Amino acid sequence: MNPLHLLHRYYPPGTPGHAVLATHSALVAERATDIARRLARRGEATDVEFIRQAAWLHDIGILRTDAPELGCSGALPYICHGIAGRQMLEAEGLLRHALVCERHIGVGLTAEDIRQQELPLPQRDMQPRSMEERIVAYADLFFSKNPRRNAAAKTVEEVRRSLMRHGADKVALFDRWHQRFGG
Question: For residue 55, which of 88, 19, 96, 15 has the smallest C-alpha distance?
C-alpha cells in the first residue's frame, strides 16, 4: 500500500492542504521509521513498514476540519481530525491505520479527558495501545503543522511544556516514551 497515493486522492498536489500535510507527514514518518529501525536493531519487534504508512496517514482527517490556516475547510472542530481520519481509513479498508489516526492525539485521550474537557468526541479511550501506535504518536509530538514552523522539530522541552497544560500525567507518559524511543 502506497500512502502517498491515498493522500493525493484526498489532498491533490498543489493545494494548500497538500503542502502542509505532506511536509508534516514526511517528517513524522522519517522520525517514526528511524525509531522503529533502531528498536528492531535492538531486537524489539516492530512493523517498520506499517509505521511508515501509518505515519504518512495519521493526520489524513484534517481535511474534514475547519482549519483554514492548514488549507482545510471542513465542518468539524480540529480536535476531531483523529476520529475523522479513522472513519476515512476504515472506509478504505485500512483498519490498523485507522486506529493510529484516532489514537495519536497528544499522548492519547482517555474517556475521562474527553468528559472533563467536554471535547466533541465519543466518550471512549483513544490512547495508543500498540508499539506502532505509540511510536507514531511520539514522533508526531515533535512536528507542528503550522506552515511557518512545520519543518523545525520541537525540542524535548518544548514538547514537555506543550503537554504540561494537559497535566503532569501526560508529561510523565511522554517521558517514559522518550526514554524508550528517544535518541
Answer: 96
Domain boundaries, the chain: 3-181
- The answer to whether 135 touches 182, Cβ cutoff 8 Å, is no
Q: What is the CA radius of gyration of the chain?
A: 15
Instruction: Judge contact between 99 and 65, C-beta under 8 A.
Output: no
CA angle 95, 138, 47 (to 5 degrees): 50
pLDDT in tens, 89-132: 999 999 999 999 999 999 999 999 999 999 999 999 999 999 99
Q: With contact defined as beta carbons under 8 Å apart, do 44 and 59 qualify?
A: no
Task: List Cβ neighbours of 59 (8 Å cut-off, separation of 6 or more).
Answer: 21, 24, 25, 81, 85, 101, 140, 145
pTM: 0.96
Pick the CATH number of 3-181 from 3.40.50, 1.10.3210, 1.10.1740, 1.10.10: 1.10.3210
